[in-house]
Amino acid sequence: MIFMGNNAGAEIWVWGDLRNKRLFGFCLNVLAKARQLAGSMSGTAAVVLMGASNDVQRNRTRELRASLSVSSASEECIAHGADDVYIFDNENLVNPRADTYASVLANAVLRCGPKLVLFPVTDFGRDLAARSARISNAGLISQCMDLRVEGERVVAKCHSHNGDNMADITFSDGYKTGFATLQPNAFQAVDIKGEPGDVKWIRVDHVDRPERINLLKRSAEPDKRQQLEEADVVVVGGAGLHSHDNFSLVRDLAAVLGGEVGATRPPVFQHWVGEERLIGQTGKTVRPNLLISVGTSGAAQYTAGIMEAKTIIAINQDKKSPIFQVANLGIVGDAKTFLPLLISRIKQEALRKMADVKQGDITPDSGNGFGASVRKMRGYQNYSQEDLAKATGETQEFIEKVENDEITPPVGFLLRLAGALKVDTGTFFRKEDKTMVRNLRSQAFVKRTRNYSYRTLGPVTENDHIHAFMVTIEPKQAHKPVAYTHAGEEFIFVMEGDLRLTLGNKTHHLKSGESIHFNSVVPHKLKSISNEPTRCLAVLYTP
């Protein structure tokens, strides 16, 4: 290996992790700190990459070439302020392996003697830093929150005494290369405009491959997978959850919030979750907009990894738990009881928002009408049209017509629909939103030959159990009644015309001024038997 590095001793190297683009982004954060340190020492900042030249990569699979594009990575490093980019070139460096990479990196360090070699705190970064420091017989400072230059020495700021205090740590030999791992979220990557850096390809003639380890399989990580360190929402579970089944509530809450799952050390030890989800001094540092900490005591070792979160919500049975001292909002209660209620409420709110279609949004071809909302809510519950038909007692053809806005569903169906989709019945009758159903009715008269219509009476809001409607049924020759059922009770008062109410196997004739009260679970259907429209006041009670 022929290598011409900066032998002045003021060069700082940053390990560039090329396994995927997101992890590489953390290296750019560390590069920003390396530039700052190099400026204090009148030195330079360089990024070290490993891979294979294009000639070698052409013999690899297409996916492999894409994941290990060292050329594009080097350009990104230069754009973020690297004075130099060193690319170690060997076909045996295509597959990322800590053992082989450590051998190459340590050899380069011994030859060139940089002042520092910095690694982001990732699973691979920590492994590589420890191996290469050992081979180089050099010191390693782990989990650094910050670095600064004092005279000829580099001083690291780290948590100590189980995370209760901060300590300044330096290397015993200030003239020897030092290794350090940094929490990447402590720094922000920056674009640099100015003198472009240099990219240097360094051919590695021989790479030691330890015989004790054999690579059996390698698969690419899905591109769309969100990294824990990058998540806007993180839900962390601790020992207070007591079991793997209870920890699943953390996963459920993270799923409905579109966030990621984190954990303290005990759940990792119990194998409720993988070690890559560990948050804290010995794990990952996160800085989400929202962090929900469930069943965690709030030990300093853990809170060291969450202090950058904008909003922290803590849930714990013990009101004296230290976690409440760092939380913006504390909830004292049993997570096994509280979390299912919270998850259900979040689902209901999400579904309600999808159902809240403004009056001006409802146009025949907008795709934002009542039918489209039903389709979205059905998808959210992972229901097929057939599943929703069974849950509401209708046919699949009926559900399809509702979703296509081809028919206007009756009130009874909306109540059963709310039950099937697990939303409040008032979701479909919000007065403050001019109610999409009312607007749909005005459009549906033409579609249905003006045979059956209704409108809501009075303010109807969520969590109401009583709903009142004015029902108009056109003359007998125009309407074919359909039987409906829904939970609760129903009261009907005939205001005009003659009404035939079929209740189960019994038929009731009601004239103007007459009324009836019945269990709405019993199948029922309405028909006007007069030559004029029949108008009824219908009051529905739902549990």
**Distance N terminus to C terminus?**
78 Å
Model regions low in confidence, pLDDT < 50 over at least 5 residues: 55-68, 357-367, 430-450
For the sheet with most strands, the description reads: 7 strands, parallel
Strand content: 15-25%
Gross morphology is elongated
Q: How many β-strands, per DSSP? A: 23
- Number of DSSP helical runs: 16
| Backbone structural class | alpha/beta
> How many structural domains?
4
Helical fraction equals 25-40%
CATH class of the largest domain: Alpha Beta
Second-tier CATH architecture of the largest domain: 3-Layer(aba) Sandwich
Neighbour order of strands in the largest sheet: 5-9-4-1-2-3-10
Q: Supply the CATH superfamily name of the largest domain.
A: HUPs
CATH structural fold name of the largest domain:
Rossmann fold
How much is the average pLDDT? 79
In short:
With 543 residues, the protein is α/β, with parallel strands linked by helices.
Task: Explain what the structure shows.
The chain has 543 residues and is of the alpha/beta class. The chain has 4 domains: 11-203, Rossmann fold (3-Layer(aba) Sandwich), CATH 3.40.50; 228-344, TPP-binding domain (Rossmann fold); 357-441, lambda repressor-like DNA-binding domains (434 Repressor (Amino-terminal Domain), Orthogonal Bundle), CATH 1.10.260; 465-543, Sandwich (Jelly Rolls). It has helices spanning 21-40, 54-57, 62-67, 70-79, 98-112, 123-136, 244-257, 265-269, 300-303, 323-326, 335-355, 370-380, 385-392, 396-403, 411-421, 436-447; strands at 11-15, 44-51, 84-89, 116-120, 140-144, 146-150, 153-160, 165-170, 178-182, 198-203, 233-237, 260-263, 290-294, 311-316, 329-332, 452-456, 466-473, 489-496, 499-503, 506-510, 515-519, 524-528, 534-541. The strands form 5 sheets. A 7-stranded parallel β-sheet has the order 5-9-4-1-2-3-10, with helices on both faces. A 5-stranded parallel β-sheet has the order 12-11-13-14-15. The model is unreliable at 55-68, 357-367 and 430-450 (pLDDT under 50).
